[in-house]
């Protein structure tokens, strides 16, 4: 794999059982690049290590006054210099290629996992950890993967030099062969402590990144309540903790670096002292002493790679552990029972709660617990974060559908939708049936003032669709972001659209118009809206009350608010005592005031009859499944 061939057509299935296993999987999948890097590394290091022998031969040729051997040695040195230059050039090229391709593979794996899990990813893993994995951790993992081949080449070169010295001059070669392993392995007892300090530094850095991400995301709210300084102080403290941890980690690595300089120096002193003693006895020549001395000096260069691989592993191990944790996440029941990319149709039914959303109708769901409503919305879309029975669309379980088919069949818009930066055209360029035009979706979502705000912020845009949207739509209000997200969802025109509190941040007049537009544009399509707004509830074909995880009542808005106290308490935000004091009729009249109320009255008998059949069908279906 070359850099120009990126991205991978298929990054593969990673071994995410642990950080080391993930690193080994990455290395194995780049075996070709690793072997190339190893070959060029061997050429480079062996050429560097051969220079001392050339120097020794040249010195001995001068001592012996042999012009022929001196010329031959000069040719060998020229050959070594060429090998050093060529090997170093291509070693750097292949090493950087291995680094970038490994990082790119990890990024593709993370992007694929994020696409499969969707919003469930940040509920299982902290947002700051996801950011850390996809940025700094990717580079550290790539660093270790590419450093392995260079370290292997350096280690093999050290072995070759030691063997050559033993053969060339046994008296001094044995000293070097015994001393070099001690020098290389002496820092091993310090590595666990250095690794632990590096882990602490990475953990604190991840917490600081998470805190910074959360602070930036909530900056608008923080400014509104005057909490900027509080969060800035928290970030300063977290930043100082990272600094202290980094200093402690650096101290340990500086000690390791010092030993990497001190121990080879002591070995060199020992070799020179012993060599001079042997030379005085006439057991070695001057050229042999210079050769061994130069070899020990040059070996400091490949020995530095022992320190580098230790650092690379200690820094990449926690990074690989975090990456493996993210990549090991799966859908709650990720079966692939149906292979065809077909989109089923029919009623949407949740066996867990007994919720039934009839095909082609607008169903409103009232749930007193917002968190429970969010979990139920996720389950209706096949994105359940907890194990349980699958939601059925028609007679097909969503969990058994391929992911693409499930997302085509059911689209879920959560209560905090994300707007990506770019133009309005890019925001609305989503997979769609082609039936709903962008202008119709924007009109139904009441985005006129949103478009005006975008145009004012993009004076250089010749076309309205080229108006720029800032990162996460920060320049827009919460209600404006909600309406743009609703328009984006309406354009996709899925078989089933699930909306979780789509109008919680808009005023009542706009909400009423959105309710009419939603009902009109989704006519004939299945729509499920989680809401407690009387304006939306009054326009729904069917209203379902979910209490403590089960459907306890179903009907139309007026019937439920008259006859179901639990429903009335959620919708009116009032207790039974307050309702009794103020008069239920007055409250109902206030909530359902307007022409929509008259329309609801006119269809109430017919809706009641339909509801009886639907409730009976849903109950019968649940009982039959429980008995089965």
Topology at a glance:
Blueprint: H1 19-28, H2 31-63, H3 67-117, H4 120-124, H5 127-168, H6 170-185, H7 191-217, H8 219-225, H9 228-280, H10 286-327, E1 348-350, E2 355-357, E3 362-367, H11 370-380, E4 392-393, E5 396-397, H12 403-409, E6 410-413, E7 422-423, H13 424-427, H14 438-444, H15 448-457, E8 468-469, H16 478-492, E9 496-500, H17 508-521, E10 526-530, H18 534-538, E11 542-547, E12 550-555, H19 557-563, H20 565-572, H21 576-582, H22 584-591, H23 595-627
Parallel strand pairs: 3-10, 3-11, 6-9, 9-10
Antiparallel strand pairs: 1-2, 1-4, 4-5, 7-8, 11-12
Structure description:
By secondary structure, the chain is of the alpha/beta class. The chain folds into 3 domains: 1-169 and 305-329, ABC transporter transmembrane region fold; 170-283; 348-578, P-loop containing nucleotide triphosphate hydrolases (Rossmann fold). The protein is 67% helix and 7% strand. The chain is built from 23 helices and 12 strands. The chain has helices at residues 19-28, 31-63, 67-117, 120-124, 127-168, 170-185, 191-217, 219-225, 228-280, 286-327, 370-380, 403-409, 424-427, 438-444, 448-457, 478-492, 508-521, 534-538, 557-563, 565-572, 576-582, 584-591, 595-627, and strands at 348-350, 355-357, 362-367, 392-393, 396-397, 410-413, 422-423, 468-469, 496-500, 526-530, 542-547, 550-555. A 6-stranded mixed beta sheet has the order 6-9-10-3-11-12, sandwiched between helices. The chain has a 4-stranded antiparallel beta sheet with strand order 2-1-4-5, covered by helices on one side. It has a two-stranded antiparallel ribbon with strand order 7-8. Helix 9 (228-280) packs antiparallel against helix 10 and helix 14 packs across helix 16. The protein is elongated and about 115 Å long. The two termini are 53 Å apart. Mean pLDDT is 81; it is low at 333-341 and 584-609.
